[in-house]
Amino acid sequence: MVKAQLQQHGKPPRPSAAQVLLYIPNIVGYVRLSLLLAACCTKSTITLRLFLANFLLDGLDGYLARRLQQTSAFGAFLDVFVDVLSRGTLWAWALEGPVAAVPILLEGITFTCTHKAGGAAWKIGCFADAPGWVRAVMANGFKTPLGALTVVGLMGCPLWFWARRFAPTSVLALPAVGCIVIAGRCLAAAVELWVIARHLAALVNEPPQEHDA
């Protein structure tokens, strides 16, 4: 009865938690997590293919979410979470010593800043007051020249460093590839630092909250 009334007024019924968890885009996210786990248990040649498959699937979940109208706050979180976890794993393998912690911490802190409100809320107005170069990166879901370079840098830079160390004969280990992905990663780092600085400024200027005695 309630479902019929909602549909009559043009409002679809709210999906249950189980339905959200089984959205096809979210299943793609679980597959990516499985590929990451498998990559951690395999040898270098297979590992490279698993990580490539993981990253290639990154754009599929968003496309399916829009195509199937299966968008959700959980799905938005899962997408970025798997990205950060996958890249962090690569960075930890690719670089020796404390230097590996730099990109991992940078992405982790940025993830915390942008997802404080949860899900996809970080996209709503998060970059409205950003400088022009930041908006040029983020515009239209990274579908700009600068946005594409940033995504290539985010995904490709840790993969390039990993390939240089464990698969030096791979095409991905070529110096020309490194020039592109490092430039993209530096651009991503600039945006991340802006996001962190903006978030800290908002915290400093936030009015104090009253607490019950």
Question: How would you portray this structure in words?
Answer:
The protein has 213 residues and is mainly α. It has one domain (2-204). The chain is built from 10 helices and no strands. It has helices at 2-8, 17-21, 24-39, 44-56, 58-68, 73-94, 101-114, 132-142, 145-166, 175-204. α4 packs antiparallel against α9. It is globular, with a radius of gyration of 20 Å. Mean pLDDT is 85; it is low at 1-8.
Structure, briefly:
The protein is 71% helix and 0% strand. With 213 residues, the chain is mainly α.
What's the layout of helices and strands?
Blueprint: H1 2-8, H2 17-21, H3 24-39, H4 44-56, H5 58-68, H6 73-94, H7 101-114, H8 132-142, H9 145-166, H10 175-204
Helix pairs in contact: 3-4, 3-5, 3-6, 4-9, 5-6, 6-7, 6-9, 7-10, 8-9, 9-10
The domain tally reads: 1
Shape: globular
The number of helices is 10
| Total beta strands | 0
Give the terminus-to-terminus CA distance. 47 Å
- Round the mean pLDDT to the nearest integer and report it: 85
N-to-C SSE string, H for helix and E for strand: HHHHHHHHHH
Class computed from helices, strands and strand pairing: mainly alpha
Biggest sheet features: none
Report the β-strand fraction as a percent range: under 5%
Cα-based radius of gyration, to the nearest Å: 20 Å
Measured as a percent range, the helix fraction is: over 70%
Which descriptors apply to this entry?
213 residues; mainly alpha; 10 helices; 71% helix; 0% strand; disordered N terminus; CDP_ALCOHOL_P_TRANSF_CS; transmembrane helix; transmembrane
